[in-house]
Design brief:
By secondary structure, this protein is of the alpha/beta class. About 40% of the residues lie in helices and about 20% in strands. It binds ligand PBG.
């Protein structure tokens, strides 16, 4: 049927009809809040270039976690920050970090704790892997990632989230978790993680920029539209429970394609640089915060996201739900 018999504007006639026909919603049920935990005492430091986001020491973490819990956000994603770095990323399992997982699970057993598993925050080179002869040693790295994951599981993490983009990392982690009796600990894999320019605030917060070269030998090339499919497929075969696309805003096509192909929960990571950009226009009163955030987060859901990891999680829970 065509105009003049068919008129599409009839279904947009009133606000009420628009509400009735609308089929995408965003609620706090979709959100995970990242949390930066810094080694030390009595720390609440602003995260560089991320207004409203802080780094906390374990003793100051309680009030932040309580807020997240009171807003009924179902999960947190933990990142550990320390100045201590070495070639093996020894401090990836530092006491302050394991202690924080325990503390959160003690306080709120029902809050789902995800923890990033990577080496870049803890290596003296800032690379996500162990270096041998000037190159990333993939197989040594996945062993180390598996060891670290087991320690996080022992501390009580519900999900480990490997983000190093090494080949075979999900398999190595799944096997190590199972061998140690952690069959119930899940893997959220950063399956499609791109070598992106949008991580710039995060790297300053974590002091984790690579000292030489870049991450292009492990993270995905954004000018390619098929490699991410293979990456997702491999991670699923290796045992990922949830797969992730990261970043989110410039990667809606990737989100859509992965959702269409794989019947697994799909997370997207609205990363630090996206936060900084969006926050800038909000704080300068260039947009209506509520409407602007709604449009962006609805877009992630429309593309196919089931779970959204975002520094806006608390803000969104307050204004949208
Ligand atoms: C660790 C890691 C990074 C992020 C999450 N895990 C940075 C990177 O790969 O350099 C970025 C998160 C963000 O920007 O919010 N590999």
């Amino acid at each position: 049927m065509k105009f003049p018999y068919y008129r599409s504007r009839r279904v947009r006639k009133t606000k009420e009809v628009i509400r009735l026909t609308r089929n995408i919603t965003i609620t706090r049920d979709d959100l995970i809040m990242p949390v930066f935990i810094k080694e030390g005492k009595n720390i609440k430091e602003p995260a560089e270039n991320m207004p409203g986001i802080y780094k906390y020491s374990i003793d100051n973490l309680k009030s932040e976690i309580k807020q997240i819990k009171d807003l009924n956000i179902p999960g947190v994603l933990i990142f550990g920050i320390t100045d201590k770095k070495d070639p093996k990323a020894s401090w990836a399992t530092a006491d302050f970090l394991l202690g924080s997982i325990k503390e959160i699970k003690n306080l709120y057993p029902e809050l789902t704790v995800f923890i990033d598993v990577c080496l870049c925050e803890f290596t003296d080179t800032g690379h996500c892997g162990i270096i041998k002869n000037g190159k990333i040693d993939n197989d040594a790295t996945i062993k180390r990632l598996a060891e670290i994951s087991v320690e996080y599981a022992k501390a009580g993490a519900d999900f480990v989230a490997p983000s190093a983009m090494m080949d075979g990392q999900v398999k190595a982690i799944r096997e190590a978790l199972d061998e140690n009796g952690f069959q119930e600990v899940g893997i959220l894999s950063y399956a499609a993680k791109f070598a992106s320019n949008f991580y710039f605030p995060f790297r300053e917060v974590m002091n984790s920029s690579p000292l030489f070269g870049d991450r292009s030998s492990y993270q995905l090339d954004y000018a390619n539209n098929y490699q991410f499919i293979k990456e997702a497929e491999l991670d699923i075969e290796e045992g990922a429970d949830i797969i992730m696309v990261k970043p989110a805003l410039a990667y809606l096509d990737v989100i859509k394609e992965i959702k269409r192909r794989f019947p697994l929960p799909l997370a997207v990571y609205n990363v630090s640089g996206e936060y900084t950009m969006i926050k800038y226009v909000i704080d300068n009163n260039l947009v209506d915060e509520k409407k602007f955030l709604n449009e962006i987060f609805i877009a992630f859901k429309r593309a196919g996201a089931d779970i959204i990891i975002t520094y806006f999680a608390k803000e969104l829970s307050k204004i949208l739900c």
